[in-house]
Structures are given as C-alpha cells and as structure tokens.
Design a protein that fits this description.
11 helices, 82% helix, disordered C terminus
C-alpha cells in the first residue's frame, strides 16, 4: 500500500467519524438525538473552542507546560528503562533477586501514586514528571530486557569466537538486538508520558492541558473537554512522528521487510 493511499484511508476514517458525530448530535434519528449535545457536544463547537484558544493565545502556556513535563518524563523514564533493562539482562542473578520487586512496583496503580507524588514533590512540574516516569520506565525496561535476552546464541557464539570483547559485544550484538524492541516501546511510551503529565495536572496543577480539561469539566463545558482531548491527541501524534524520524535514522541498517502484493 502506497503512502498516499494509506494517508487517504486514514483521513477518510477521521472524516467519517466526525461526520457521524455531527449528524447524530445535530439531527434526530427516529425522533431522538442519539448523541445529546449537552453530553457529547458537536464538532462545530469543538473546532470553535480550539480556534478560540489558539487565537487568544491561551493554549500556548498550557501546551508548553505539558510538553516540558512529558519530555522530562519520557527522557528520564526511557534512559532509566534502557540502562536498567541492559543491566538486568546482562546480570541474570541480579535480575532474579529483584524480579518480584520489579513486578510489584509495576503492579502499583499509577492513579494512587499521583497524590503521593504531589505530597512529596508539590504541585509543580516534578510531581507530574515522576508520575510519567513510572509509566514510561517499565514499558521500556521490559522491552529492552527482552530484546537483549533474545540475542541469537549462534550470533553470540560466533562473535565470541571472533574474539570480541564485552564492550564490542555490547555495541555490535546486544545493542542492535535491543534497538528494535526499544523503539517499539518508545512509540507506546510517548503516549504514556503525556498521560502521566495530564493525569497529574488533572489532579492538581495551575497550568497544562490536564488543568485546562479539568477546568472545562468543572463548568460542564463539554466542548472544552473534547477540544482539550483533540489538542492532546494531536500533541501526542506530533511527538510520535519525531520518535519515528529518529528511529529511521538509527535503524537505517535494518532491512525492509518485503510486502506480499495481492
């Protein structure tokens, strides 16, 4: 499938969704409006709200705050996940000792942790960053750990037979093996970093997209809530595109998998 065809289909899905939303929230079907505007708003009001935010400049401050929190959470959580994932994969005894504690920490509900981080770190950005880190870290950690563990024993044996030292093995064998797994997790982690920041803002903040959505919800401004959600979605897509560009640069050596044509 060509890129143009793929993009056309993706746009078509969005158009159909928005059109159905507008019709069902505006015109009665069998005497009833299926999506009452009080609860679901409508695309026109949502677009007007988004335009009003950007024209007035209100949105920029909130976007910047959420961007900073998300990027800090993404970077800290990803770096921590990569380092600890490599360490555990290369130290099986250490991994075995800490395995139950890692699983226990990963099982903790993040919504429960949010008020604790707020108590410890205050209402500033760092409580939101901490929450985002807890979401990003484990996703990257488990993928990197599995990627290193999945190194082919044959490749590893051949590399050692050729006289590769530990540092060379790390650079030429373990790192390439884990890289695909790592970037797969980073695409997911982008969304979770933003989720951590927004949830933290929603529970207590003075700025940010989560704060904006919470304020709109507090006055039953459904159009404002949906507008915040759409801005947030676009925000995540832009960051994910940046990760995709970096991935293509670093994985330029990876062969393209041929697609079978009908």
């Amino acid at each position: 499938m060509s890129r143009v065809t793929l993009l056309s289909l993706q746009i078509a899905v969005a158009v159909i969704f928005v059109a159905a939303w507008y019709v069902f929230s505006t015109y009665p079907v069998f005497g009833h409006i299926l999506l009452p505007p009080f609860f679901f708003s409508n695309p026109v009001d949502v677009v007007k709200q988004i335009i009003a935010w950007f024209v007035s400049g209100v949105i920029w401050k909130h976007l910047w705050v959420t961007l900073v929190e998300s990027m800090l959470a993404f970077v800290i959580g990803s770096v921590g996940g990569v380092l600890v994932g490599f360490w555990f994969a290369r130290q099986p005894r250490t991994a075995a000792v800490f395995d139950p504690y890692v699983k226990m920490a990963n099982a903790l509900p993040r919504v429960v942790l949010a008020p604790i981080f707020t108590l410890w770190l205050g209402l500033g950005i760092w409580s939101k960053v901490a929450l985002g880190v807890t979401l990003v870290f484990f996703i990257v950690f488990f993928n990197v750990y599995q990627g290193v563990k999945e190194v082919s024993p044959t490749v590893l044996a051949n590399a050692r037979m050729l006289g590769m030292k530990e540092r060379q093995l790390m650079r030429h064998v373990y790192w390439p093996s884990a890289l695909s797994w790592m970037f797969s997790s980073l695409h997911t982690s982008v969304g979770f970093a933003v989720v951590g920041a927004v949830v933290g803002e929603y529970l207590g903040a003075a700025a940010g997209l989560g704060y904006l959505i919470q304020q709109a919800e507090g006055v039953f401004d459904v159009a404002g809530v949906f507008a915040g959600m759409f801005v947030l979605a676009a925000f995540v897509i832009v960051i994910d595109l940046i990760v995709t560009v970096v991935e293509k640069r670093l994985l330029v050596w990876r062969p393209t998998v041929g697609e079978s044509r009908p």
